[in-house]
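Question (not urgent): is this output format expected?
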Amino acid sequence: MWLNDTSELIRELKKRNVRTVALQLPEGLKRKGAGIARVLKEAGFSVIISGDPCYGACDLAFDALDSADVLVHIGHAPVDSHRNVIFEPYWVDFDLHVLKNALPLLKGPVIGLVTTVQHTHLISDMRRWMEENGISVRIARGGSRTPLTGQVLGCSFAAARNANADEILVVATGLFHATGVALATGRRVIALDPFTGAVQEVSGDALMRQRFAAIEKARGAATIGIIVSTKSGQRRMDLAEKLVSLDLRATIVLIREVLPDELLNLGYDAYVNTACPRLAYDDRKRFPVPVLSPQEFEILCGVREWEDYAIDEIA
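Got this back:
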């Protein structure tokens, strides 16, 4: 894991003549912040930690950076370049032999292989293990938001599409990324949890039924809020302005944290989410009213056919 060696980061900070470091960690790593801060303080730096929620490199703590020389963002690859932001990986290893669990479910001689950011350092080793066990593997780079080979995000599945394989193995915890890959590519998808060893074929059919129901429920809405995030890598105002022009019921709502209580207080009958795509798909049960993706709103407004459904991704 990253914490085993801070020497390269410390050298970079000294090269930049940094005095004060703002430290930002995602939700699953926040408890490690105190330990990292101590290492940096022992190296001679002042440290402040951003305590705000953080869900990715699209959510940089610029407020904390206002009080520091640089922001060190841990755990994600960059989605944009920023002169005073240093992105530090947080690699998580697992036993490659867990890949054997996926072999019985793989049908084709060639598969595409993708994973999430914390495992991308193992992507070449995963391919080597698979090929030693008779499976030909393709891995590919994604887009600007996924700079690491084989990396997928909840808002970008380009690496899966670019692999040009009829079958894709997704190595990640949970099923969200695998479901997204299935919807984004139309390919057969196998999901493998690298820690539990659980493996299964994943289809987007159940999610599609849920999304169809959400669209239908939103048809009766008297008011519709078009959510625009103020977070650094999620603000899609141009898209929101396009969407609000489609329906007189719609109004743009600027918001930083898209939370159930906030939406309840605003009082709209339905929302359209232009912020992190995961909100409409992964968190749908938490919200008090339907929350549609931009593409689903286009279906609601009659400018897109259901047959042309596409999962929301940020370019």
